[in-house]
Amino acid sequence: MISRKAITIGLIAGVLGGITLFFSTAAAAEDGKLNIIVFGAHPDDCELKAGGVAAMWAALGHRVKFVSTTNGDIGHATMAGGPLARRREAEVKKAAEILGITSEVLDIHDGELMPTFENRQQFVRLIREWQADIVIGHRPNDYHPDHRYTGVLMQDAAFMVTVAHFMPTVPQLAKNPVFLFLSDNFQKPNPFKADVVVAIDQMFEQKANAIWQLESQIESLWATGNFERVVPIPTDPAGREERRLALRERQAQRDKAIADKYRSQLVSCYGEEEAKKIQYAEAFELCEYGRQPDQAELKKLFPIAK
User: Fold this and answer.
1) C-alpha closest to that of 40 among 150, 183, 126
2) Other C-beta atoms within 10 Å of 294: how many?
3) Residue 104 scores a pLDDT above 90
4) What span, in angstroms and rounded, lies between the C-alpha atoms of 145 and 152?
5) Where are the domains of the chain?
6) Residues near 209 by Cβ (< 8 Å), separated by ≥ 6?
7) What is the CATH number of domain 33-199+282-301?
């Protein structure tokens, strides 16, 4: 048993040395909860692809962190640079509060993420400091270079997080996390394969409300499909509610498509009768790097009701 005094001393040492590992380990050892970190390329990717399961983990007392690997500072029709980066960071912070999780945005320009040694170190540091049991990110085959390189960097960290003499100032993980990919529809060189499908019906409204905080995207790219103009969100209550419901329906259709596409996996997890009722889902693919759990362990790691 680790004493409260030892935890306090470890926390102080971590703060002074730039290492929060000791405190995280002590906390995890005492409460038995999972630590999950999700890497998304921009301040919206994690929320869209994993907001539901994140809220479910958080409701069970597990610790979830969303990391935006770029600051999104060119993702708008009329704004850019520092003002947009600050706006988008504030938006995902609000979304995180609704989901009950932690959020961080890295200081890397949108469209400029590269699989450099320095960025590999940053991924390793983040995973180690969070004492991650589960790490999730994009697949490395994707239309956007920031998405691709987020996937590459996550994969590059999958072994290095356990190597003692790689970044020795942040102690390595004794147990390699489970690494997984967020869902997508890309087919080449290989299509997404759903190894875990989670029903998120009970948290869908919470997820939709979190996504509603991402106003910079709602008024720009999501409204027009390009970066040519802005469709402002109405300021009157009735107009805002109409726009919110339209956004909710947009996300509902996306998460319904996941549930319908992977209905057979839902049946195997939840049983046929329960699976028929499921409307919304999120899906994840097991990465061949990192620890390799079997299907039974994956079901235990994810909040899948039996």
Assistant:
1) 150
2) 8
3) yes
4) 10
5) 33-199+282-301
6) 98
7) 3.40.50.10320
